[in-house]
Amino acid sequence: DVKVTQSSRYLVKRTGEKVFLECVQDMDHENMFWYRQDPGLGLRLIYFSYDVKMKEKGDIPEGYSVSREKKERFSLILESASTNQTSMYLCASSPYKGPLSNQPQHFGDGTRLSIL
Amino acid sequence: AQSVAQPEDQVNVAEGNPLTVKCTYSVSGNPYLFWYVQYPNRGLQFLLKYITGDNLVKGSYGFEAEFNKSQTSFHLKKPSALVSDSALYFCAVRRYTGGFKTIFGAGTRLFVKA
Q: Which of B90, B5, B109, B100 is closest to B49 using CA atoms?
C-alpha cells in the first residue's frame, strides 16, 4: 500500500513565523501535491510537482512556496505565516502515466495548522 | 468556468436504506471523474473512478457511481447504507488547463443513522 506521511498532525505557530510542512511518500511516485482544506470550500491546490526540483503553482499559491530536493519528499513553506493560513493541509502523491493519466491520488492524514 | 458541484452539504439516511450523493460537473471535453471519502482526522481515500466505457462504475466498500453525460452528473450510490459509511465524500474531476489538474467539489457529509 502507498504510504504518504505528513510529519505533524497538529501544529501551532505565531503570525510572521516561517513554517515548514513536510511530506514523504514511499512508492516512488513522480507527482506530489499540496492542498488546503477548508469547510465549504473543499480542497484547493496550492502547488504541485511532477519531478525533482520541478514545481508549478496551483490555484492559491500566494504566501506559500515549495521545495522538492528528493523524489520522495515535498515540503510546503509558509514564508511569513498569517492567521488566514490557519487550515488543514493535505499532501498527496500519484504516479505519472503521461499527460492523460487517470491515476487517483494517495493522501496523507493531513496537518491541522493554527496560526495565532 | 470549469467546476464541480456537490449540491447537498449533508445527506441523512437510515441504515439499510439506499444512499445517493450527488455530483455535477462543468468541464470541457471528456473528463476523468473520481469519488473520494474522508473519515474523521484522516486524509482522503480513493473510492472509484470513471474513465470511459460502462456508465456504471463499481468501487470500494460496495459503492458505485453512475456517469450521465447528458446531465453531466456522476452520482455516488450504495444499495444498503451502513453506519460506518458516515463520512465526508468528495467528487473530483481531472481537467486540462494547459496542464492536467484535479479539481474537487466542496464535499458532502453523509450521516447514516442506526
A: B90
